[in-house]
Amino acid sequence: MTINGSVGLGGKNGKDDSKKIQLALNNVLEVFGGPVVPLKVDGLPWEKTIQAIRKFQMKQLGFSDGRVDPNGPTLAKLNELVDTTDFLESLAQLLGLSSLPGVAVDPKVIDDLYATLLPVIQSCVLAADATLLLARSQLDEPSSGSLFSKGAWDLVNRHFALDQNPDKRKDFEFIRAIYRDMNALLHRNTSKAEHTFVAFPGRVSAADLVLKRNAVAVAVPNGRNLTGEFTVTALDGTKITLKDNEIQIFQPFQFQPQDARVVAVIHEMSHYLGGGEGSGTLVDDHGYGWVDKLQNLSPKLKVRNAECFSNFAFDAKFHRQPLTFPA
């Protein structure tokens, strides 16, 4: 891996170079200094990327300047560590195997997503919107209204803490707008007017699939309003072109239980339908997990946290926590 300019704090931060570094950091195991939460590969080296660079540097090099230079020690160490399958490839050869098998996204997974999963996801989104409509009367008079509206308001607060939010009316409408846009996006896809959800076209090592914390699905923030493309390089040197306005479904998706697939797609749609960096409407990743793991997020961050959108929609439909594999 080479880069043309520095990436990180005080760097030139070219978009392609930044994406390379974000991808590389995501491919470093946490025990070796990789990020706890995978970075968005968006070419925008904001604070999370700089923090990930610093963490990697402290673990591997004993210093932390938050920048990766083209000919510097941080890039050299990344190139040494990003391919964690070297040892296993050598072992495969000793066992008489030409190589470890690669895993692609099974086309049937995308067919099933459109045929059976998107309708379930749409029912969650509709349940979320219906709950918000029931809760609306509580915005001004929380003590009034029916038991149904009070119950809906309690559910909204469980996930978004609007009762503690000084901009609760504005943020209530922001939440509703995201779910309405989700419903429209799902309708366009189920009616075959659009094909937003696509299989990642590359393959990953079977060892990587087991050893690494791989993304299940990924969307570019504000993807619905973008028309660009970006290129990533596979371990075998193959160039893979991805579109900003598509939501990529990755190999681990096919091994997840249905609950996990549902919340993953809703999570990524909230990124895709939110605004871009600096817009004030970016739906980011401020925290992961169920309600108990997000309780320390401020009300303002909850309204712009993708996990809150997926949890609320699932809870509104099924009234329980989704079944997911441990992180």
Descriptive overview:
The protein has helices at 15-26, 47-60, 73-81, 86-94, 107-135, 147-160, 168-190, 206-211, 258-273, 299-302, 306-318, and strands at 7-8, 67-68, 102-103, 197-199, 204-205, 217-218, 229-233, 239-243, 247-249. It is mainly α and 327 residues long. It has a three-stranded mixed beta sheet, covered by helices on one side. A two-stranded antiparallel sheet has the order 1-2. Strands 3-5 form a two-stranded antiparallel sheet. Helix 5 crosses helix 11 (306-318) and helix 7 crosses helix 9. The mean pLDDT is 87.
Quick rundown:
By secondary structure, the protein is mainly alpha-helical.
State the helix count: 11
Helix content: 40-55%
Structural class: mainly alpha
Side by side, the strands of the main sheet go 4-9-6
Beta-strand content: 5-15%
Global shape: globular
Query: Can you summarize the main beta sheet?
Result: 3 strands, mixed
H/E series, N to C? EHHEHHEHHHEEHEEEEHHH
Q: What's the β-strand tally?
A: 9
Radius of gyration: 21 Å
The average pLDDT value, as a whole number, equals: 87
Terminal-residue CA separation: 29 Å
Which spans have pLDDT < 50 for at least 5 consecutive residues? none
